[in-house]
Structure formats: structure tokens, C-alpha cells
Amino acid sequence: MEELFLARHGHTRLNIEHRFNGQNEDPLLPQGIEAAQRLAQWLDKQTVPDSLVLISSPLRRAVQTAEILQEVLPGKPELHCDYRLAETNFGAWEGLSGDELEAHYPGALDEWRAKPLDFPFPDGETARQTAHRAISCLQDWRSKVSDQPIFLVSHGGPIRALVLDLIGAPLEFYWNLNPPWASLSVVELGQAYNRLRYFGQTG
What we know:
Layout: E1 2-8, H1 13-16, H2 30-43, E2 53-56, H3 60-70, E3 79-81, H4 98-104, H5 108-114, H6 127-145, E4 150-154, H7 156-166, E5 183-189, E6 194-202
Parallel strand pairs: 1-4, 2-3, 2-4
Antiparallel strand pairs: 1-5, 5-6
Helix pairs in contact: 2-3, 6-7
């Protein structure tokens, strides 16, 4: 059975400060690097198929994580980047905390919570748009490489969308899933159905 590997990047400053990170080029913190290295050590002990296609979001924190994991993958596969795996573009909200948002955009958080998939982040995009581009990315790569297993390194938003789409769950559960930083999720892709083997495995 074919497996799809979905890794989330390690910690950054904006992450641990609970700010909207989005498409900021926020690098991994030392603890983020350590967490990615622990995941790599764990992954190195697992059975991973040969001839993996390694694809990452182009954002710095994802690429840094991908390069750490790349070292333990069979044959050290070439790293490809695809913008469609980037995190949601939160636009004017990027870098802000919840309290700062309330100060700058009174009531906006309530508007977001009322329609979490379709709320248009100012100068950004919606979560649904993020989901659609991530799903189209995987579809295109699966068509392109056909018989090769795929290892993606991305962010919370795209990973949520891909997992839900692959197991046939409604996108409305998007915000109910939250893979930990520096974690790995695996979906087994079958002819009759896909199965979530595990979700959010850390090192």
C-alpha cells in the first residue's frame, strides 16, 4: 500500500508567541531545530520506502525542517519546493497576536470564528483557498511521479486540508486538527479507501 508522508515544520518565534505566522519568513528557533532533529532520529529507525519524492513549502521554516529530514531519508532525495504547500496568507494579520488583532481590528476575531473557512484575511486569502491549493498540489505531484511515494514538508493548514481530503472527511473539520510542530503524519493510500495510519508523531 502506498504511503503519503506529511511533516510539519519545527518551532519558530512567532509560533511560540502565539502570533499569526502565515507566510512570514520566520526561521526555526534552536528548539525548533532540535525538535526536527529528534523527528529525524525517530524517522531514521522506521521503515521508509526508497525513491521518495521530497517536496516542501518554500517558506524558510519548512525548508529548514525538510533539509534536516532529508539527511535520513533513503538516498537523500532531491528537495523540490512548491508554493502551494505554503501556509495560509494571513495578510495584514501576520505577526500579530490575538490581543493586538482586537486592538487593530475590533470584532475581526469574532468574524473569523463565525466563518473560519471563508473569512477573507485582510490582504490575504481564506483557509478554503489554502486547502484547495494544497490539494491541487498533491494531485499534480501524484500524477507527475505516479509510482513514487511522496514526502511533503509543510504547515498546519495544508496538512489539515490534505488529511481531511484523503480520508474523505468534510473540510469543516479543518480547525479541529492541529499537528504538533516537528511532527509526522502518514496516510496509507489504497484502491478502495485511504487510511490515516498516524497523525502528529513527534520524535
